[in-house]
Amino acid sequence: MTSKEKRCIGGYASGIEDNCVVIEKTKLSFHGELEDCKCALLTNGYLDSIRQKLQNVRHIESGVEVVGTNLAVFDLLDHVEEIRNPDGYALEFRNNKNLNRIRMNELRILDGKQEDVLFENDHFIEEIHGNSESLSDFLHLESVARVSHKKEECSPEFVKIITSEASEYGWDLYALIVSCAVLAVIVTVQTFYLLKGKGKIRKNKMRSKGRKKHKKGRGNSERSEKDEE
């Protein structure tokens, strides 16, 4: 990040200046239709204008909140590389009725004050138990947060989940931790067998080369014996 990159104060996404690279001082907010407030509905045309407005943003220093939208896929920050918030959650998803995907493929740093991500009464949490793509998005956020904090193991500390029924909280959190741990085991096993397979291939190649050298040496020896005769 250079000093010449344009820095802008956060706020509602629709009001952000064009060509910003860094969003600072205030949360970047995406608000949609809520039952108890008269907010603008995020229509396709509105989304396109926001997407174009935010296309150069790479760093967000005061967090992001996505509240009460009708979005199924949140991909408006797919190009952002860093989201921090020293005063709270780096990412907040609250009361999004249809959310099932969170695409942040370029994200490399996710760093909040305590937990990095908040889900409050958000549909996305329901999706991750039966939707493999939703689970993959969630685990991507976890892995980015883990790397940001230089942790080697999956941890529930990166996320806080609040649901309308208190009894669901423990189950949701437990399921997420287990999912993360299972994925880590699968990746470890796959890596082990991959390396093991490569080792076998390398050994076979070395043995093959050894046999060829042995045959070549024996052939040369036989020729020299014939020459002497």
Automatic annotation (TrEMBL):
Keyword Nucleotide-binding: no
InterPro entries for this protein: Rcpt_L-dom
Transmembrane segments: 173-195
Region spans: Disordered: 202-229
Stretches assigned to the Receptor L-domain domain: 38-120
Keywords associated with the record: Membrane, Transmembrane, Transmembrane helix
Comp. bias regions, Basic and acidic residues: 219-229
Biased composition (Basic residues): 202-218
Name of one Pfam family that matches: Recep_L_domain
SUPFAM superfamilies cross-referenced by the UniProt entry: L domain-like
Keyword Membrane attached: yes
Name of the protein: Receptor L-domain domain-containing protein
Annotated organism of origin: Caenorhabditis remanei (Caenorhabditis vulgaris)
